[in-house]
Amino acid sequence: MRSSHQRDAILEYLKSMRAHRSATEIYDAVREKIPNISLGTVYRNLGQLVEAGQIITVETHDKFVYYDGYIKPHTHFVCKACKMIFDFEYETTQPEPITSQGFKIENERTVYYGLCKKCIGDTPV
Description:
The chain is of the alpha+beta class. The protein is built from five helices and six strands.
C-alpha cells in the first residue's frame, strides 16, 4: 500500500490515542489538518488501513463500527448504557484444542457487553 498524506493523517490520529472513534469523528478530527478531505476519502482509507492490519474495527451490538489504532492483542467491553468502549489486555496464547486440530489462528475478536462501573453506580437497585 502506497503512503498518502490523507491516510498518514488518519493513521496518526488513531495511533495518538487509546480511544475508539467512528468514521465521522475521524473525519472531523482529520479535517482540522486537511480541510478539503472528504468523508468518502476517510472511509476508503480506513478500509485500506484495516485490510493492511494497521488498525482494527470494533462493531457494537447495534451495528455501529468504531476504529481502533491500538492493534496489540486485546479485547473490548461495550457499555450498553453510555456506549463507551473499553480495552482489556490479555496474554495471547493459541487455544490448544484448535491448533492441535490443524488450524492456525491469525487473530481473534471478542467483544463483551454489559454495564461499566460508572453506569452500574448510576443504576438504581
